[in-house]
Design a protein that fits this description.
Helix content: over 70%
Radius of gyration: 18 Å
Number of strands: 0
Shape: globular
Length: 217
């Protein structure tokens, strides 16, 4: 089932929202350059680059990326980039970091889910029971989250030593534990509802593993 059918928003509407957020990323990038803020520039530039991935995956690898999936990816990177210009440090927006972690981790979970299901369908030698898949996705997301927190700590420490702007910022142990908690939330969402949103992607990955083109008759 395509994402747009679940969201109840027209494909054109989702595309317009996606384009608006891409334009917003350009504005954030320019704002970072104007302020001379390396962290804002790097995060917004990477986020902008990520928004081109769906089109590349569909064009070069025949992975179906409908408007809803593209909107999902763009929303995650846009909210993260937007957070770097203020919301992450605004105490009244304490929930912003939690939302971005849940969204980002859901993308990581989606990658893990789609790959696992494709492997399961590709060969009879591999079988992943639903309960195992659920646990695997959660462990995959948490493991990625731990690695990300270590990277944040290392990058932040290096920036302090060099006296430069922090590209990534860690706000203490409590914040790290909350980040991992909301990473898990994103993983649970995909583990429970991944089949409804990612069936086309799983099918395309399976076809590629079988040596077939998803678009072939």
């Amino acid at each position: 089932m395509r994402v747009r059918e679940r969201l109840g928003i027209s494909e054109r509407g989702q595309e317009l929202v996606t384009r608006a957020m891409e334009a917003g990323l350009v504005v954030i990038l320019l704002l970072g350059l104007y302020r001379g803020n390396v962290g804002v520039v790097v995060n917004s530039a990477i986020a902008l680059a990520v928004t081109f991935l769906p089109a590349m995956l569909e064009r070069d690898y025949d992975i179906p990326m409908d408007a809803g999936l593209t909107l999902w990816i763009t929303t995650a990177v846009f909210l993260h980039a937007l957070g770097t210009i203020g919301p992450y440090r605004d105490p009244t927006l304490w929930w912003w970091d939690h939302v971005t972690h849940a969204l980002s981790s859901s993308l990581v979970a989606a990658i893990g889910y789609a790959t696992t299901r494709a492997l399961d369908e590709h060969t009879d030698d591999v079988y992943f029971p639903p309960r195992f898949t659920f646990v695997f996705i959660l462990l995959f997301v948490v493991a990625f989250g731990v690695v990300w927190e270590v990277i944040e700590f290392g990058v932040g420490g290096l920036a302090t030593i060099l006296g430069s702007d922090k590209i990534l910022t860690q706000f203490g142990l409590e914040d790290t534990m909350k980040d991992l908690l909301f990473d898990t939330v994103g993983g649970v969402v995909v583990a429970v509802w991944g089949a409804a949103y990612l069936s086309d992607v799983v099918g395309a990955l399976t076809d590629r593993m079988d040596g077939e083109s998803p678009g072939a008759e």
